[in-house]
């Protein structure tokens, strides 16, 4: 057993959050180091090794550090997080330290590396089963499925924080049997302001959702390296509860743009050749290492579902961060500035949104048999409404037929009643009721995507004339 620790004073330079230390023997990528200086102690992580030169990310501030007053000690370990059932209901910072005033984490079962283990492709099970978010535009038209990665794309000034808090408060898996898995949320906020952090804390405490989740808060003033570590800590906690304790875990990550900007900052300090818009060329694989930790495993009861929230600078869907996120994940929910301007909440643009795995979690035995047909009919009718709005600006309202006018009535009702549900939760039954309220403003022969017997049945139930 080696009793002596290895310390190095051979610091070549300090650049931003990075230390460049030479003549390091047998250092390992990802290894933790302790940094001692005249200002106290801090920790860092070996990021890159070139021959005997180690690039170290410092977890704290590098201001005041100098080659002549700093010693780097190798810890011969990697970043780990404490795991235990007592984590549920706790609020932690970006280093997994409690910030809720409830004292240290008790009943620690084990410490686990935050990098996690890749899911064996042979054992990866196809996402399945419906997750109810309580939001009509998602539950009916862009259904979230257990084990899926479904990002929300938003713009600056749009109420993404409110939507994230609403999903955390209301999301659940419908109990289909006595042996259904318990449900919980792991929430990670990256690079947020103190005001945003206060909003989330109060929202979760008031709703009681604090007791069914684990919450990480990385603030904008925290070191960039914490922003890199926080989502991995959150996912390690999610894997523990999902694959060891049998929970269905929903992971909400906001905002992944801040994560990628921290990645760009560190890449710039390393003097790497930049890629698109200055982001590192390896950003795709880095994001994949986070997003691909969602899924279901054959023979294991739990699951991990992800909702990453991504801000699009200038509302640009082709920006590298939302663009690469879209390649890795299975669809997107898009927030719309025009709907927000009309006072509609949540301002979700259903025509730009898509859930590629929707069919795996809907239909008979999961939701309702007519789920797909009803969703398709809403899409078709709302798309036609949008076309008619553009036509109306050219030829005027008097140039439209009665049927076309009914589509305008449908579209206005769809936006004001179906999309605009406010902050309250809607059950799937309520969502279906609102959908039919909108569709029955159209003539029966315009509902081409719905079975005639289903339309007749609904009309009979409502006492509506066929």
Largest sheet: 10 strands, mixed
Q: Enumerate how many helices there are, as a single number.
A: 12
Mean pLDDT: 91
Share of helix, binned: 25-40%
Total domain units: 3
CATH topology of the largest domain: Rossmann fold
Through-space gap between termini = 85 Å
- Described by the principal axes of the CA atoms, the overall outline is elongated
* CATH level 1 class label of the largest domain: Alpha Beta
Structural class: alpha/beta
Query: How much is the radius of gyration in Å?
Result: 25 Å
Instruction: Count every beta strand, where a strand is a DSSP E run of 2 or more residues.
Output: 21
Q: CATH architecture of the largest domain, please?
A: 3-Layer(aba) Sandwich
β-strand amount? 15-25%
The low-confidence parts are none
Pfam family, one: ATP-synt_ab
Family: Belongs to the ATPase alpha/beta chains family.
GO biological process, one term: proton motive force-driven plasma membrane ATP synthesis
GO molecular function: ATP binding; proton-transporting ATP synthase activity, rotational mechanism
Tell me what the structure shows:
- This protein has 466 residues and is an alpha/beta fold.
- The chain has 3 domains: 6-77, Elongation Factor Tu (Ef-tu), domain 3 (Beta Barrel), CATH 2.40.30.20; 81-361, Rossmann fold (3-Layer(aba) Sandwich), CATH 3.40.50; 370-462, no CATH class.
- The chain has 12 helices and 21 strands.
- Strands 9, 11, 14, 15, 16, 17, 18, 19, 20 and 21 form a 10-stranded mixed sheet that branches.
- A hairpin with a 2-residue loop joins strand 2 (11-15) and strand 3 (18-21).
- Helix 2 packs parallel to helix 3 (194-207).
- The longest helix has 25 residues, at 371-395.
- It starts with 6 loop residues before the first strand and ends with a helix.
